[in-house]
Amino acid sequence: MSLTLRTISREQHLAYIRSLPSASHMQVPAWADVKSEWRNESMGWYDSYGKLVGVGLVLYRQLPKVKRYLAYMPEGPVINWYAPNLEDWLQPMLAHLKAQGAFSVKMGPPVVIRRWDAKAIKAGIQNPEVKRLRDVEATFLEPRAFEVSDKLRRMGWQQDEDEGAGFGDVQPRYVFQIPLAGRTLEQVHKEFNQLWRRNIKKAEKAGVQVVRGGYDDLPQWQQLYEVTAERDKFRPRPLGYFQQMWNALNAETAQRGDEPRMRLYFALHEGEAVAAATMLVVGGHVWYSYGASANHKREVRPSNAMQWQMLRDAHAMGAQVYDMRGIGDSLEDTDHLFGLIQFKVGTGGEAAEYLGEWDFPLNKLLHKALDIYMSRR
């Protein structure tokens, strides 16, 4: 199959995404408006009949003082990754990006290598000899993903072997997901562990209410988010980022009368917001994106109540999967990310390992300079 690649309009890009069961929220055209400090482009692959068969959102970050760019496709591009002629998809892309002034290309194939169900993860946590998720036998393996990996290496794509362990990549390599396709809410709830079910009941008894917020409630979200950032020692994004995200993503769906792309949830106790979260929706894929909680009233379990409501809403929308996003791959309780996997595994879902992010140096000297700069940051 001969493929050609060219710049496409946002309308063509969005129409293609809407024709799919789902795609990453970082590959919809509006994500370019969220990342407005990057130059952006929508690319389209066409087959020999002139039919659009793949798309990619590229973000270009300029090097200081020179007109050369890092071309980045977060969780993309959206192509047939299992195609036997993968080179025919990626070679025109590299040529196109080089012509656009890119010195290096970074992409994140949305390809899952393996999955572990909650039972396997729990057994791994209890086994003192097991240190990492990769040491646990996978419940599901995708042999085609290993073929993709081999093809990329043969084509000259590079990946740091340690990259992606936990949060080594720009986007998480390990995520936690709750499958919803073909399952009733009762079946989903039944898979929760005893602690989760008890905490949901406790929140209900304490009178915790979960409500949806709107754009005007984002400052309230920000307050809780900054409390969380201080407690968990990470640098928070500014309020303007979430306002921009809300406007950009929801404008994209509002034009067509679709479900809002971004939602905001609050857990209230005695009228006070004590937990909050953002949700993102693309087709049948729903993400719990950012979470926040107060330092007090944690005993009424607002986060559990909020997650359960978000899950119910995702199910009501007909979502195929509820994605709780990143986890670390360490199963040792001394690791700072261990609490994250412990909290999420209680939902009875599954951990998934993606192929991770890959780099192609179009200019080896500039690529190396970028590597050195990034390692010193």
Number of helical regions: 12
- Highest CATH level, the class of the largest domain: Alpha Beta
Number of strands: 15
Main beta-sheet annotation: 9 strands, mixed
Whole-number mean pLDDT: 94
The number of distinct structural domains comes to: 2
What series of H and E elements makes up the topology?
A: EHHEEEHEEHEHEHHEHHEEEHEHEEH
Amino-to-carboxy terminus distance: 43 Å
Q: What portion of residues belong to β-strands?
A: 25-35%
Q: Tell me the strand order in the biggest sheet.
A: 7-6-14-8-13-12-11-10-9
Report Rg: 21 Å
Helix content estimate: 25-40%
Spans of at least 5 consecutive residues whose pLDDT stays below 50 are: 163-168
- CATH-assigned fold name of the largest domain: Aminopeptidase
Shape: globular
Family: Belongs to the FemABX family.
GO molecular function: aminoacyltransferase activity
Organism: Streptomyces lonarensis
Pfam families: FemAB
Question: Can you lay out the helices and strands and say which pair or pack?
Answer:
Elements: E1 4-7, H1 10-18, H2 31-34, E2 39-46, E3 52-62, E4 69-73, H3 86-99, E5 102-107, E6 112-117, H4 118-126, E7 140-141, H5 143-155, E8 174-179, H6 185-191, H7 194-205, E9 209-213, H8 218-232, H9 239-254, E10 262-269, E11 272-282, E12 285-293, H10 302-316, E13 321-326, H11 338-345, E14 350-354, E15 358-361, H12 364-376
Helix pairs in contact: 7-10
